[in-house]
Every structure is written in C-alpha cells, then in structure tokens.
Design goal:
NAD (chains A, B), homodimer, binds 3-isopropylmalic acid, EC 1.1.1.85 (chains A, B), 11 helices, 3-isopropylmalate dehydrogenase activity (chains A, B), about 350 residues, alpha/beta, Isopropylmalate Dehydrogenase, oxidoreductase (chains A, B), 2 domains, globular, 12 strands, metal-binding (chains A, B)
Chain lengths: ~350, ~350
C-alpha cells in the first residue's frame, strides 16, 4: 500500500476550516485506492507570527521537505490588525515556500461551474470557460531584486529588477506545452515583448524552441494588455496560458473573476523536478470576517486537494473528486445552499464519493 | 485671437481617416470661440518607415516641439507585413514621443456610452462606468533598462529594470489628485507593494504625502491583481486610478474592454510642465484590415480631440464636443449606424455642433 505523508498548513481565518473539509474528501476519495494519506499539521501564518514572531524557520522548511505534498488553507491577518506588518506573511511565508521549495509552476485552472453565474454576458452554460494558467513562480519581478536610493528625498530612486533565466523559463514552458498536449492542444504565451524586450525575447525564443517538441500543439503570442481584452470578450479562446510571475499574478485574479468563481478557484505550486513537495491551496484568502462562523465554502480547498491527488499520480481519485464537486454544485444550483455549514458542504461531497 | 498650432500625425491604416474627422469636429467646435487652429501634417509611422527607414528623427522631434499640441491617429503595419520589424514603430515612435516629450501623464478615461453594451452583466444605463486612469508614462518597467547575458545558451539571463523616481512619481500622483478633486474626489492607487516593495514603498509613501494637500479627496490602495477583480465585479467604484506605466498599460486595456467601448477609447499623453506639446490619440490601432474603406469609426479620435481642447484651456469647446458625441451616439443607438461612412459620422458630429 502506498502511503503519502501530507503536510497540512491550515493557516489563519477560514484556512483551517476549509482544509479540514478537504481532508475528509481526500480520505473518502482514497477509499477505493490502495493508497493512504497521513497528515501532519504545521502551525504557520499570521496567528503563528503573533505568538512566535516567526514566519518560516529553517527547521520548519526542513521538516516540510520531508513530505510528499503540502495542503494549504489560507494565511493573512485581519487587515485591520495593525500588529502584523503589511506584506510580511505573504512574502516570508507564501513566497518563502514558493521560492525555497522551487515551486516553478504556479498552476491555476479557471472554469465555469454549474450554478455559478459569470459576470460576463458572453459566458453561460452553452459557452463555458475552461482554461489553465501556468504562471512562473520562482523568478521574474518577484525575485526581490532592486533597491531604494536616497529614500525620502526629492532625488529618491526605486528599482525593481525582473530576473529571467533560460533555465527558469524553459521548465515552465515545457510544463505548459505538456499540459496543452493533454488538453485542447492550444498554448498562448502572454508577455509584453514589444516593451520588455530582453525578457520578452527570452520568453518568445524559448517558447518557439520548445514548441518544436510539441508539433501537435498550436501556439500563439499575446501581449498582456491585449490578453485582458480577450479574457473579457472571448475567454473561451484560451486553453493553456503560459506567462511570467507578475503577469500570471494579474491574469489569475482576472480569470476567476470572469468565471464568477473567485471563491472556487484552486491552485497548485509545483516543483516540477520533484526535489521538494508541491503545494495545493485555494486562491481565496483567510476571510477573517467570516472565520469561526462555520460558513466558509470549502469547495476551492476540495478542488485544490483534487489537484494534489492528480499530482501524486492518483488521477482517478482526482477525477472522482472533481466529478463529485461538479455534481454537487449542480444540485446546489437547484436547491440553493442557504444555511449550509462548512462541514455540511464537505459532507455532501463525501456522500457523493461514497455513494 | 488665440491661434494654436497643432501637429497632426495621421499615421497608418485608418489613422489619417479618423484624424481628418477629428479636425472637422475641432473646427466646428471652435467656431464660437475666439480661437483658431492651424494644422501641420507630419508623415510618421510604418508606411513612413518603409519608404524612409526612419521612425522619429531628431529634426522631426525638434519641429514637433514647436507645436501647441499633437493630434495623433494610429500607427502600425499590417501584422502580416514581415518587412516591418516587430515592435520598432511602437518603441521608437510611440514610446519615443512619450519619453522625448516627457509625457509623464498618460490619461485614459473610461465610461459607458449610450448604445454601447458592456460585456458585464452588472454594467448598464442605470449602473454606468465613469473613471479615469492616470498612468505614469515616462519611467517604470518602460525605461528600457535591462539586458541579456549569454543569449541563446542554457545559462542565459534576461533582466528588466523598473526605474521609479520621487520626481517622476510625485508629479503624476499630484496630477491624479488634482483630477480627482475636480471629479468625485476619490483616488485609488494601484500597485503591487506587497511584492514590489521598493517601488511600492515609493508610490505608497508619495501618495500618502501628496494626499495631505488634498484633504477633500479620499484615497485607497489596491493591489493590481485585486484591481482586475474589482473592474469586473464593481467598476462603478472607481473614480480616478493612479498607477505605474506597466500596470497602467494593462488596466487601460481592461478598462475599455469592460465598458464595451474599446473602439471609443480616447487618450492623452500629457507633459504636465508644459515644456513640450502633449499628444492626443485614440486607443485603437491602425486596423489595416478596414483601412481605405471609409468605414472606420472616428468617435475615439473625436473624443481625443476633446481632451486636446480641454488641455489647451478650451474647456467649453471640449464640453460641447463631448455633449455632441453623447447625443449622436444616443441617436445612433436608436437608428443604427449601418452603412454610415467615416465622414458621414464626422459630419453628424459637426451638424450637432453647428445646430
Ligand atoms: C499574496 C501575494 C504575494 C500572492 C502573489 O502575488 O503571488 C497572491 O496574490 C497570489 O497570487 O498567490
Ligand atoms: C504599443 C505599446 C508600446 C503601447 C504601450 O504599451 O504603452 C500601447 O499598448 C499603449 O497602451 O499605448
């Protein structure tokens, strides 16, 4: 029997609540498989920082490295809580994990869900959205390079250096082509290569070169500004988008917004070489305003768990979870979800998996 | 009598066609004023490059500097025309003008227009959009700083340096606050200061400082990724957005997309110190596919001309043009525009101004 050791980082606010449901669903999905999950909980996030003053220690990182995957909830303090310095949890913990565990592929699928109305008139059940963004996760403008000179004076200069390497771009583009090949065989490179000519040259040249190994995948290029127009006017045209860290950040907020499913968006931060565990997390935040009320929607965490199953080679279990979620969302689209608690929602997915 | 010398750069494709209508409308709008425009045409763009090999010479720049304003059409070759190196006209001519003429404020208003259906379900005549983006135009990631090391090898590195100065940020933020004060007194700073900490610090600090001189303007901060969500879910919340060159580029394609009016979007590239002429251009491109057919819509060029009137201190004439456009668009929303030529549309605006 296959045993996977999963690190669980519930985090802050609704994070632990939705992750608990994801675990229930994982266990139900695994029942028919000869595989088993063991879970170890890690206390990390804003609350943890408030009590310990630590965001992510070397010891914790070391311990996390021993796991097969990380199931993540959400982190972040109440924005009104001025004790937590702005951005520190995001940078030191979230980005700390991505960079230290070499999560080069930040995978963010976007699709239409039953009962979820898109804010776009052109998106409906007959014209659904279904694409994935493969966002680079370990370099680009996120590298943290840059500086401030003469801070606070009239002569102040601030720089930010986007760092892009052939090594870093190629592995992400290869991953994106591989995913496109398994989907609708259409890849779109998004960049701004008419202005950012150095990095744009590297991205465009790399994509052109990698494309040769994927002759059955057609690919096109789109400027990031134009990509936002297409997302609004014809999001159905996208299958797989590959892009850099910052453009990917922007497009993967726009993408779930146009599907109407920001609350449902799942993501995976993948170490493609398998040298460290990959991480699976809902895109939504810790939502301190509804924390502790048992009303958070665990669907995004459950869908993130499905991405984890898929990543661990348990594709059939992943497919079962996705099917259960789709079926249950359809049901709820008819019945409504008013009054349903977080765990009742999780139980409903479990019931579908067990039936 | 006040005479303004206007440089006219029609450019490529439909550019000269729509600019011709803008001129007609300008002259009609000026009739009641003690002001007059003289026009000098400059041949610039992809066609010009093909015949001369020049994008923007020092002589042309010098001549342009002598004008009170520049009325611009559109530039760019047919994308299928492989004779024109990709990006050269955009960089050397468009960005060349912005940087050389110190167009620090790139102003892009977005609003709902009668008869123009937004792709968003939440935007309609009862819930219209009306905001402006003040995009920085002369620094940031557009500075052209960066480089490629070991090009074409596995060890290649490409960098892009975003350059931000107190000088450059402050003048744009001041301009944005001034505009907010004259509108709904609400300014939103858009950045990504949790990740781009150096430039984010400069932008946030500058905005906080400038805000003190505008106590009647309330302001808030939004990450660029979150801004895309708000644009889709609640664009009515925005009044004035101030942001950097690259974020502004992205948001000002998204903005007209959500209003439904990409074809109607106007823009101004403003030298706030008055040391060189400002430039007024429609956001749409040269549309080579419909060039020469006399079917291009001149509305965006006409609205850009209205921005020029306003900039030149001819606010009443500007208001008349805007009112004429709105009235005529309402009319067309009922009658339809099928079969109307470019000049018939221009004539309709002129008729409204003259009646
Ligand atoms: C919280 C922030 C650092 C993060 C990012 O910018 O990557 C978030 O926006 C995301 O997309 O995961
Ligand atoms: C053509 C290009 C260089 C330009 C820009 O990126 O600024 C365009 O997208 C714009 O927004 O005016």
């Amino acid at each position: 029997e296959n045993t996977f050791e999963i690190a669980v980082i519930g985090g802050d606010g609704i994070g632990p609540e939705v992750v608990a449901e994801a675990r229930k669903v994982l266990d139900a999905a695994l029942a028919p498989e000869s595989a088993e999950f063991t879970y170890i909980e890690y206390s990390l996030g804003a609350e943890h920082w408030l009590t310990t003053g630590e965001t992510l220690t070397e010891e914790t990182l070391q311990a996390l490295r021993g796991h097969d995957a990380i199931l993540f909830g959400a982190v972040g303090a109440d924005p009104l809580d001025t004790r937590v310095p702005s951005g520190i949890i995001e940078r030191e913990l979230l980005l700390g994990l991505r960079f230290n565990l070499d999560h080069c592929v930040n995978l963010r699928p976007t699709r239409s869900y039953p009962g979820v109305v898109s804010p776009l008139r052109g998106v409906d059940e007959e014209h659904p959205i279904d694409f994935v963004v493969v966002r680079e996760g370990t370099e680009g403008p996120y590298a943290g390079n840059g500086g401030l000179l003469r801070r606070g004076t009239d002569a102040e200069i601030a720089t930010e250096v986007s760092v892009n390497t052939a090594y870093g771009v190629r592995r992400v583009v290869e991953d994106a082509f591989t995913r496109a090949q398994a989907r609708d065989k259409h890849l779109t490179l998004v960049h701004k290569n008419n202005v950012l000519t150095y990095s744009g040259d590297l991205w465009t040249r790399t994509t052109t070169a990698v494309a040769k190994s994927f002759p059955d995948v057609r690919w096109d290029y789109m400027h990031v500004d134009a990509a936002t127009i297409h997302m609004v006017n014809n999001p159905q045209r996208f299958d797989v988008i590959v892009t850099d860290n910052l453009f990917g950040d922007i497009l993967t907020d726009l993408a779930p917004a146009i599907s109407g499913g920001i609350g449902l968006a799942a993501s995976a931060s993948i170490n493609t070489a398998g040298t460290a565990p990959s991480m699976f997390e809902p895109v939504h935040g810790s939502a301190p305003d509804i924390a502790g009320k048992a009303i958070a929607d665990p669907t995004a965490a459950v869908l993130s768990a499905a991405l984890m199953l898929d990543h661990l080679g348990l594709g059939e279990a992943a497919a079962r979870v996705e099917a259960a979620v789709l079926a249950q969302l359809s049901q709820w689209a008819q019945d409504g979800t008013s009054g349903l608690s977080t765990s009742q929602r999780g139980d409903a997915f479990v019931a579908r998996l067990s039936s």
